[in-house]
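User: Is it possible to get a 3D structure for a protein together with its bound compound? The compound here is magnesium ion. I've pasted both below.
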Amino acid sequence: MIIKACIFDLDGVIVDTAKYHFIAWRNIARDLGFEFTEIHNERLKGVSRMRSLEILLEVGGITLDEKTKDALAKRKNEEYLEYITKMTPDEILPGTTDFLKDLRKNGILTALGSASKNSMIILKRLNISSMFDVIIDGNKVSKAKPDPEVFLKGAEELKIPPANCIVFEDAGAGVEAAIAAGMKCIGIGNPFILSGADAVIPGFREMYFRKLNLLLQ
Ligand code: G6P
Ligand code: MG
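Assistant: Yes, that's possible. Here is the predicted structure of the complex:
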C-alpha cells in the first residue's frame, strides 16, 4: 500500500473524551432511574449523539417520544460542554502531536473524521486545528459510523483515493466504517474489541511514519 493520507477519529484517539461523554450520559440515566455502566458506555463509542441516547434508553428499557429525546440529548450536551470547554492541550493523548508533525514532514496529508458535532470546540481547546488539512465532523455528515460517509468525505476533500488512506479508530463502529470505505484501519486500544482492524496499537507514543508500513505488512 502507498500511504498518502491519515484520517484520525477524535474521541478516544486524539483525546480521552469518552470519560466526559460517560459522566454526562450516566447522569441522564440516573435521572431516568437506572444505572448506566462503563461496560454499557463501550457501545456509545463512535456513534452519534441521538443513536447514543437510543442505546442508553434500550439499556434502561425505556421508550420516549421524540420531543423528550431531543430535550435529553440537549441536556446531555450542555453538561458535556461544561467539561470540554475546560480542556487544555495537556489532555492530548501522548505522542499524538509528534506523530502528526512527523506525518507532515513526510508529506502525508491529515484529516479528522469524527462523528462529534463538538469537534471544532475540542480541537481549538487543544490548539491543534491547524495540524489537519481537512476536518470532517458530525455537522458535515448525515450517516453515522459504521457508515463510511465521514471517511469517504475526508478522502474526497483531501483528493486522495480511499485505497491510499489509513484510518485511526478506537471504536468498533469506526473500524467497520473505515473498512467499508476501502481504507486500511489501525485500531487504538483493545485488540479484542478492535479485531476487525488491520493492526492495533495502544496509542501514538513512539509512533512514526516509517513504522506505519511495518505495522500494515
Ligand atoms: C464520537 C464519540 C461518541 C459521541 C459522538 C457524537 O464519535 O465517540 O461517543 O456520541 O462522537 O458526539 P457529540 O459531541 O456530537 O455529542
Ligand atoms: Mg472514537
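The CA atoms of residues 28 and 75 lie 8 Å apart. Residues 9, 11-13, 45-46, 170-171, 174 surround magnesium ion (ligand 2) (CB under 6 Å).
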